[in-house]
Amino acid sequence: MHRNLPQNKEALLKSYTTRLKEDVKSMLENFEEIIKLAKGENDSQLNRMTQIEQDTFEMQVRAANIVRAGESLMKLVSDIKQYLILNDFPSVNEAITQNSKLFRTKQQECDQKLMSLRDDIAADLYDLEDEYFTSLYK
Going by C-beta distance under 8 Å and a sequence separation of 6 or more, which residues neighbour residue 34? Predict the structure, then answer.
């Protein structure tokens, strides 16, 4: 899958996978608990008002946990983008190779045009020189 990556890059990719799984798991668990609390299925010894306050507080904590996990996922996406930018050498090399070929082609075209222009100027100068030396008006 990772095409013979160096060990530190392989470890980095594994840590990304671990972070992704942990954050998604945290979001799912907290969401499931909020749903359970919202259904009000908790039987406890506390009076109804105290139970509602406790459930509300727990919902807020779990919602905060979901937000934290979401922020962690956004950071993970940013880290993965940065990793791809810094380690996507094959596509960078391919782009460099394509540009090099394009510029070599342009250089060859310019060289051919310059040589053709040089030959034309040389021929015109030769004709001018010949005309000068054979002219009656010198």
Answer: 59, 62, 63
User: Cβ distance 13 to 5 under 8 Å?
Assistant: yes
User: pLDDT by residue (tens digit) across 108-138?
Assistant: 999 999 999 999 999 999 998 888 888 887 6
Neighbours of 9 (CB within 10 A): 13
User: Nearest CA to 46 among 58, 34, 54?
Assistant: 54
User: 92's torsion region: left (phi>0), alpha (psi -120 to 50) or beta?
Assistant: alpha
Q: Each residue of 39-64: pLDDT tens digit? A: 765 555 567 778 788 888 888 898 99
Q: Which two tokens stand for residue 56?
A: 């509300």
Residue 87's contacts (CB-CB under 8 Å, 6 or more residues apart) are: 9
Structure tokens that stand for 59 in this block: 């919902």
